[in-house]
Design a protein that fits this description.
heterodimer; A: mainly alpha; three-stranded mixed β-sheet; 3 strands; 70% helix; 2% strand; B: mainly alpha; three-stranded antiparallel β-sheet; 16 helices; elongated
């Protein structure tokens, strides 16, 4: 068993390194985006001399979704998302859904981050260490001897289990401490909550083992029950939940959004200009004083009004799509309350800001950011302000801050489940 | 080795596994899971295809209903391409959930393929999805190990093994017989899965011929049978070499972990170290920088386009582009599209071959790891591997290019050279031109190509089978009976 522990520890170390690499890559990408933004703006400032509307057609502004160092411990879906996105002020719908370039086969295999080691591998070592604590004593015939010699033989078993618990917890804490040093994670509420989830998850598995032990079955049966529980909790139930959730809330709106935004904008070129301008002014009454020059075949007001329609006309589908994703998240969360593996993974992703909600919040922030850019640039375009009058060097990469607070309540589900099994084990004696 | 003796031992093993009630329950539970997996894949594939057809038609209708206009506006109006799933994907979902499903195709730029299942998932997808692939590749081996871990060590502990061997059975016969017996039990899970898949595929409104479905499924079945035989053999062999059943179980679970989780994950880390891939921003920056170097068709002083202009003027014996017998700006755009597409594709190909190499690092481990071998074969034949995805990807990019260039050609031929902008009332061509441009569709990877790309993994399974034979014939003599 010693080998198992050592192996687990090594895998834990590798997972920390994977986390470190991930964090560094995120930083690198954000730095590069920053450089790209500045270079891009400067280059176009050199090229474009004319209307500010033309310059703003090209140049892009970035919003970063910087993951905290803790994210290295539970990467979630972060690796498939861009750490920072550059957007121009044209319609956002065509720009915002791009994802990071990742080998899809590697995505299928999944990252071996710390949360993987914890959720999949720790339970196995716990099972291997303690599935036959009582049954082996009985099977070898030592149990009756013990029962005669010691006043409280159950206590011996309990002590044995507690020693194993202490060993595993010690290793967990060692890994977490090493991890926080290696990944420069600051000792804050999130790290503490993360560690608490990890400790609780380990405790849950010990309690489960204790409960199975209390059933008084043979070693083989214990092994079978525990391994099946492991498979159910880490593979089968989550996989069923995945199929259930995606079949229950299908998201066809994704396609609709694409088509609507495409037609919303591109279709306008061949339509009469007046309706587009009216819709634009309905959306932004503050710009109703600007007018498209009569008889002109083109104006930047009309152009950006058309672009705006790409976003406006796809809004219905976009909102429906977001609602469906939220339904998916909610249902999964609810089911997760009963499934410690899912709950622990989701809580960790929450704390590491690598969950789907973080991404949805980021998208919302990106929309606001984009809208703010529009609101500040639209009047300048319509007033035809000279390009040189703007302080372009002030447009640097901006950062999205996920404001969600550490939630300690999320510790309860696994805690309650563990207590339940503990009580059930007491009943069995 | 006597065939009859092997048959006797295998049928004995087979019966003794089925005699245990829990095993019947396990088989039952597996069947239910397979049923759920196939059923839900079938429904979601049907739904996906319905959307692809529905929205595909909508895109087409909207495209055709565009009024008479300047062709360049149509090049920007563009097209939306949706990815059709290969019908067999209901058997093994492979990387399908990580692949984009919709892409907006327009002139001048290559947009990313968006909306993979993963990008819309609550995050639960990380745990994997219920598919026949998961059940047969990942879980079935564990079940086989459970059936096989005590197959020899247990009899040795009970003292039956010695009796067996002294009665005339040879080690080879015992090992092969037991492996076959356990494999036979596994067929109870394997065969129904294939039969149901076959029935569902026949019911699926699809483009595949029954022959192709049958051949694909037979190939898959053959590989899966080889896989479960190898796994059964490993179970029996480890049991034979272990001092106790407990030791055998622990070793087998260790192997299972190594095969299904540790080796794939570690080899993936290695792949990333050996073949680092660029991020999106790196990729975009490199492409953009190269495009800038090539020249800017919008810049009147650009040397590349000036040289082209001069040679055109010379060839046609005119002094200004206005006098050229065709639409000059269309010509320039065509040249620009050609250059930018070449550049983009070059970098995209580089990236794809990096992905291929990364994946190879994992796939080479198939020689050590039958799990990876079967995973790969299953994925490829189900049309859910990267190469199949590339069929869509390339078809979409080719369609985009041909759309842009067709519109440029229409502009060159049909738009007057004196037109200043696409808003000019005289600069329109007929709607018929849009209708004449064919709809987007993409083919699947041909069966021959599928087989070709699985050669390595099939070879890996074959090597494993050879190892099985060698071990049985040459190394089973020094096993212990007591």
């Amino acid at each position: 068993m010693g080998i198992g522990l050592v192996l687990l520890f090594i895998l834990g170390l590798i997972s920390l390194h994977i986390g470190k690499t991930f964090n560094e890559r995120q930083h690198f990408i954000i730095e590069q985006t920053e450089v790209a933004q500045t270079e891009h703006i400067n280059r176009h400032l050199k090229y474009v001399d004319g209307h500010i509307g033309l310059l703003l057609y090209y140049i892009r502004f970035g919003l970063a979704n910087e993951a905290p160092p803790l994210a290295g411990l539970s990467i979630g879906q972060r690796d498939t998302r861009q750490a920072a996105q550059l957007v121009n002020i044209r319609n956002l719908e065509e720009q915002k859904n791009t994802s990071e370039l990742v080998n899809p086969f590697y995505q299928l295999l999944g990252n071996m981050d710390f949360s993987f080691v914890l959720i999949y591998l720790f339970p196995l070592i716990i099972i291997a260490l303690s599935f036959n604590l009582l049954s082996e004593e009985k099977e070898s015939g030592r149990w009756s001897l013990l029962a005669v010699q010691s006043g409280n033989p159950v206590r011996i078993i309990k002590t044995k289990l507690l020693i194993r618990l202490a060993c595993v917890l010690l290793m967990l804490i060692a890994l977490l401490s090493l991890g926080s040093l290696y990944l420069n994670i600051s000792l804050d509420q999130n790290l503490l909550a993360f560690s608490a989830h990890a400790v609780l998850y380990v405790m849950f598995w010990f309690v489960l083992v204790w409960w199975v032990t209390s059933l008084g079955k043979s070693s083989n049966q214990n092994a079978l029950i525990l391994l099946s529980s492991w498979l159910l909790l880490t593979t089968i139930i989550p996989a069923i939940v995945n199929n259930l959730v995606s079949n229950l809330y299908p998201i066809a709106q994704a396609y609709e959004t694409t088509i609507d935004s495409r037609d919303g904008y591109h279709g306008k070129w061949d339509e009469p200009k007046e309706p587009t301008l009216i819709k634009f002014k309905d959306h932004y009454p503050q710009f109703s004083k600007y007018n498209h020059p009569e008889e002109a075949s083109f104006s930047w007001l009309w152009y950006y009004a058309m672009q705006q329609m790409g976003d406006d006309e796809s809004a219905t589908a976009r909102i429906a799509m977001k609602q469906n994703i939220e339904k998916r998240i909610n249902l999964t969360n609810w089911i997760g309350y009963l499934v410690p593996s899912i709950h622990t993974q989701f809580s960790m992703n929450f704390l590491c800001k690598t969950d789907m909600h973080n991404y949805l919040n980021y998208l919302e922030a990106l929309e606001t950011y984009h809208e703010d850019l529009r609101l500040s640039f639209y009047p300048k375009i319509f007033e035809e302000e000279p390009i040189q009058n703007q302080k372009w060097e002030r447009y640097n990469l901006e950062y999205f801050k996920d404001q969600r607070h550490t939630s300690w309540m999320s510790l309860f589900p696994v805690m309650i489940l563990s207590l339940g099994f503990l009580l059930a084990a007491r009943q069995n004696r | 080795m006597r065939i009859a003796q092997i048959g006797l031992i295998s049928s004995h093993t087979y019966k003794s596994v089925l005699k245990v009630p829990i095993n019947l329950w396990l088989i039952g539970a597996f069947m239910i899971l397979i049923f759920i997996a196939l059923g839900s894949s079938y429904l979601s594939n049907l739904y996906h295809q319905h959307n692809v057809d529905h929205y595909g038609q909508e895109v087409r209708d909207r495209w055709e209903n565009n009024p008479d206009k300047h062709p360049h506006r149509m090049a920007h109006y563009g097209y939306v391409a949706f990815r059709t799933k290969y019908p067999l994907s209901l058997f093994d979902n492979g990387i399908d959930s990580y692949l984009g499903n919709a892409v907006f195709l327009e002139a001048h730029r290559q947009n990313s393929v968006n909306f993979s299942q993963a990008s819309l998932s609550s995050g639960i997808l990380r745990f994997g999805e219920l598919s026949t692939g998961l059940l047969l590749q990942f879980l079935l081996p564990l079940l086989i190990f459970f059936w096989g871990y005590a197959s020899i060590s247990g009899e040795r502990e009970k003292g039956v093994l010695k009796l067996f061997l002294t009665q005339g059975a040879s080690w080879q016969e015992v090992i092969l017989g037991k492996s076959l017996g356990i494999s036979l039990v596994s067929l109870f899970i394997l065969l129904p899965a294939f039969v149901i898949t076959f029935i569902l595929l026949i019911c699926y409104p699809q483009t595949l011929s029954i022959t192709l479905i049958a051949i694909s499924l037979l190939c898959l079945l053959g590989c899966y049978v080889a896989y479960i035989f190898i796994i059964s053999f490993i179970a029996v062999w480890v049991s034979a070499r272990s001092s106790s059943s407990k030791a055998s179980l622990i070793k087998l679970i260790g192997f299972w972990l190594l095969f299904t989780l540790i080796i794939p994950k570690i080899s993936q880390v290695a792949g990333q170290i050996f073949y680092p891939t660029p991020s999106k921003i790196e990729f975009d920056t490199i492409v953009e920088e190269e495009l800038i170097k090539q020249g800017d068709s919008h810049n009147p002083d650009d040397p590349h386009y000036n040289a082209m202009k001069d040679s055109l003027l010379l060839a046609h014996g005119v002094s200004s582009t206005k006098e050229l017998p065709f639409n000059y700006s269309g010509y320039i755009m065509k040249e620009g599209e050609k250059l930018s597409t070449e550049t983009y594709r070059k970098h995209k190909d580089d990236l794809m071959s990096l992905y291929q190499k990364q994946s190879q690092v994992v796939l080479y481990s198939a020689v050590l790891n039958p799990y990876i071998a079967i995973k790969h074969i299953s994925m490829v034949l189900s049309g859910t591997d990267f190469e199949s995805y590339q069929m869509f990807n390339e078809a979409a990019e080719n369609y985009r290019y041909s759309l842009a260039q067709t519109m440029n050609d229409l502009q060159i031929e049909q738009i007057s050279n004196t037109v200043k902008s696409s808003a000019d009332k005289n600069a329109v061509i007929s709607q018929q031109n849009w209708i004449d441009f064919p709809a987007f569709k993409h083919d699947f990877l041909s069966f021959n190509k599928m087989i070709k790309s699985t050669i390595l993994s099939i070879a890996a399974l074959a090597i494993w089978l050879i190892i099985v034979v060698l071990l049985t014939v040459y190394f089973s003599k020094n096993l212990k009976a007591i």
